[in-house]
């Protein structure tokens, strides 16, 4: 029998019945009904963060790791608006998140009341569903719709809830909203077109992305049938790279030359569950694209054969129809080039008496981390080193703001990753700029006893922005950071603080840091002038570096060129 309860309690009971274990957010008077309902509910935790943006990032990371619906909440006006950046990340990453956006009292809406906004309009662009609950009777139905939208559309649903409505009583029964399972396979005629295109050429390259999750065996089987090298995008790294003799590395701005070369040498490109956004990294080739979301097909490059379906299901449907290719020239050339490129990259991840190269730090973290560690790199230079030096093995995970590209994602996402996986090693690879943007979340780690390990790549700058300036020919300006001793800041917050300034001390410090029982931070002063060489340098970029050199000398900062040369001679020559 339905029971008499408040709207807020019904929401929390429904979330609990649906498997939600925690809600991330900050308290506020308009959220009092919701937080009090959580207080009274065993099995649902209230995870307080120091900023609502961190709450949304934490929810996004938990959803990325588990695939399950996660929840964040913000009080009216500024409180829920702070969620928006983290919700954009969740929406663009395609993970299911429900945001409870509290609102001002119902009778005051439209009067210009204190903290008044119109959240359902403001959140529209970063959601698959955003609606205002205008009466208590609406609440159960709109909640079910919002949850189902987030789960089935793999995105953000926002429920705008006035504080007074949350406290009203209703008669309703909690519902369990669970994901459904289905297999999506392209139509026969579309499969036949794909077979004709693949059978009619020899030089096939596969671009594999996050859509290959759960289809690793099928991916290797079709690569063997087609004798095709596999290039992966950043979001595909954790699903594609491991135990893969056909892997030839990554392409895109974070990638390296072997992945770029294998793409550009293709006569036919088979895109499997990837939405790599950079047009300049696609070849002039026949393109077959497989994606479960048909609206994503053809967004980046013209596609001759669109296939709407799951990657695993589609490959299984294609394999019996395909001829087995025998020529290995394209594949062998690509794998040989990858082996050479990999050796070159690994040669850069070595100790130096003069400085600490970020490649070396990342390699040591990779070697010392657990076999099932979760890595969360900040957008900027840390994500480049993660892309090139973290080894995936099918058990490790790597989560980041890879599509939205927001700074300061690593630490707050680590909160969600660790809360969802209490016994798992969680490592945030933070930039100094990214960490300082949401540094208050160090307190969240301590408050909730989350044993996250935070690595700070301290180069005293917005480093990736500096590289972009150099590439465009601009003298670096406005990118300097006056940083504190982050290890001391960590200790003041209640974490264990570690610091390394010399390569010879780094390996031992990394091991002690990762072995610490509890939250810890390791600060490493890394080479500021390290260049992140892209997989292909355009004429415009080469011109930009020349202009940068000239302008730097003319501005009286020629010593920067000396430092740049010292740091990068090993990879430039």
Fold and architecture overview:
By secondary structure, the protein is α/β, with parallel strands linked by helices. It has 24 helices and 20 strands. The longest helix has 20 residues, at 329-348.
Short description:
By secondary structure, the protein is an alpha/beta fold. 42% of the residues lie in helices and 17% in strands.
Q: Bin the strand percentage.
A: 15-25%
Q: Number of DSSP strands?
A: 20
Average pLDDT: 91
Class of secondary structure makeup:
alpha/beta
Low-confidence stretches: 541-555, 557-565
What global shape is seen? Answer: globular
The helix count comes to: 24
Largest sheet: 6 strands, parallel
- What fraction, in percent, of the residue positions are helical? 40-55%
What is the quaternary state of this protein?
A: single chain
Strand neighbour order, sheet with most strands: 3-2-4-5-7-6
CA distance, first residue to last residue: 76 Å
**CA radius of gyration:** 25 Å
Write the layout of secondary structure elements.
Elements: E1 3-6, H1 7-17, E2 22-25, H2 32-39, E3 45-48, H3 52-66, E4 70-74, H4 78-81, H5 84-93, E5 97-103, H6 119-122, E6 129-132, H7 139-153, E7 156-162, H8 163-167, E8 169-172, H9 188-199, E9 204-208, H10 216-226, E10 230-232, H11 237-240, E11 247-250, H12 257-264, E12 268-272, E13 286-291, E14 305-308, H13 311-318, H14 329-348, H15 358-368, E15 374-377, H16 381-389, E16 397-398, H17 410-420, E17 426-431, H18 432-437, H19 441-447, E18 453-458, H20 463-471, H21 486-493, E19 496-500, H22 503-515, E20 520-525, H23 539-554, H24 559-572
Parallel strand pairs: 2-3, 2-4, 4-5, 5-7, 6-7, 9-10, 9-12, 10-11, 12-13, 13-14, 15-16, 15-17, 17-18, 18-20, 19-20
Antiparallel strand pairs: 1-8
């Amino acid at each position: 029998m339905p029971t008499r309860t408040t709207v807020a309690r019904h929401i929390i009971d429904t979330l609990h019945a649906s498997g939600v274990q925690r809600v991330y957010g900050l308290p506020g008077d308009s959220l009092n009904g919701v937080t009090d309902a959580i207080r009274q509910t065993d099995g649902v935790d209230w995870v307080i963060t120091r900023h609502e943006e961190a709450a949304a990032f934490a929810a996004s990371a938990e959803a990325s790791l588990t695939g399950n619906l996660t929840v964040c909440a913000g009080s009216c006006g500024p409180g829920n608006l702070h969620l928006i950046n983290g919700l954009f990340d969740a929406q663009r990453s395609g993970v299911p998140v429900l945001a409870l956006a509290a609102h001002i009292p119902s009778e005051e809406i439209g009067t210009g009341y204190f903290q008044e906004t119109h959240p359902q309009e403001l959140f529209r662009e970063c959601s698959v569903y955003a609606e205002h609950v205008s009466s208590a009777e609406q609440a159960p139905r709109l909640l079910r719709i919002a949850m189902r939208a987030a789960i089935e559309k793999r995105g953000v649903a926002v429920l705008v809830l006035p504080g007074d409505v949350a406290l009203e009583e209703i008669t309703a029964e909690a519902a369990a909203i669970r994901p459904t399972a289905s297999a999506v396979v392209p139509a026969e005629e579309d499969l036949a077109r794909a077979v004709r295109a693949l059978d009619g050429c020899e030089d096939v390259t596969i671009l594999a992305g996050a859509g290959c999750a759960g289809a690793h065996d099928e991916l290797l089987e079709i690569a063997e049938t087609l004798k095709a090298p596999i290039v992966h995008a950043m979001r595909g790294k954790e699903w594609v790279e491991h135990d893969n003799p056909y892997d030839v590395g990554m392409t895109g701005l974070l990638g390296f030359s072997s992945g770029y070369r294998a793409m550009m040498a293709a006569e036919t490109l088979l895109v499997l569950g990837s939405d790599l956004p950079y047009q300049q990294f696609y070849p002039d080739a026949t393109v077959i694209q497989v994606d479960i979301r048909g609206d994503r097909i053809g967004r980046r490059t013209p596609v001759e054969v669109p296939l709407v379906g799951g990657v695993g299901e589609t490959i299984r449907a294609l394999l019996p129809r395909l001829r087995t290719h025998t020529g290995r020239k394209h594949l062998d050339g690509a794998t040989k080039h990858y082996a050479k490129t990999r050796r070159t990259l690994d040669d850069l991840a070595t100790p130096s008496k003069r400085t600490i190269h970020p490649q070396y730090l990342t390699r040591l973290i990779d070697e010392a981390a657990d076999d099932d560690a979760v890595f969360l790199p900040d957008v900027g230079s840390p994500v480049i080193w993660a892309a090139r030096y973290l080894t995936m093995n099918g058990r490790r995970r790597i989560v980041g703001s890879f599509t939205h590209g927001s700074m300061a994602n690593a630490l707050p996402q680590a909160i969600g990753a660790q809360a969802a996986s209490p016994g798992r090693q969680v490592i945030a690879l933070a930039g100094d700029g990214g960490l300082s943007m949401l540094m208050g979340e160090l307190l969240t780690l301590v408050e909730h006893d989350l044993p996250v390990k935070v690595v700070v790549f301290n180069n005293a700058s917005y480093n990736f922005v500096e590289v972009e300036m150099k590439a465009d020919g601009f003298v670096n300006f406005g990118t300097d950071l006056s940083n504190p001793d982050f290890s001391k800041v960590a200790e003041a917050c209640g974490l264990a603080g570690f610091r390394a300034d010399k390569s010879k001390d780094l390996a031992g410090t990394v091991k002690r840091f990762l072995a610490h029982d509890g939250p810890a931070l390791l600060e490493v002063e890394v080479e500021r002038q390290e260049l992140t060489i892209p997989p292909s340098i355009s004429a415009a970029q080469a011109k930009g570096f020349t202009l940068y050199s000239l302008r730097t000398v003319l501005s009286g900062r020629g010593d920067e060129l000396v430092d740049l040369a010292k740091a990068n001679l090993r990879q430039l020559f």
